[in-house]
Amino acid sequence: MTTRTYDPEPLRALAISETGFVFDPRTGHSYSVNPTGLAVLSAMKEGLPLDAIISRLREEFEAEASAVEDDIEGFLALLREYGLVGRGVATESSAGAHP
Question: Cα separations (Å) of 54 from 30, 63, 72, 74, 97?
Fold first, then answer.
């Protein structure tokens, strides 16, 4: 399985409700996430490695590994875009692709 890493530091400040409301006190922005997004953010805030998050989601949502991986990669792209995870998010295969 590919090793995946991310920088959880920006997530530590987020206030995340049980209903999927996310507030970033650093910027004052608020977001809404679905149950899958909530599960991913909660696991990331716990500091779980992405491989463990994928396993957790596969079990919780009874989904195929490839579908979960694709969904998480897309979600991480959005989190990076909004500045909610550090730019250090990478897969093993792409980690060396950016300076």
Answer: 25, 10, 8, 13, 23
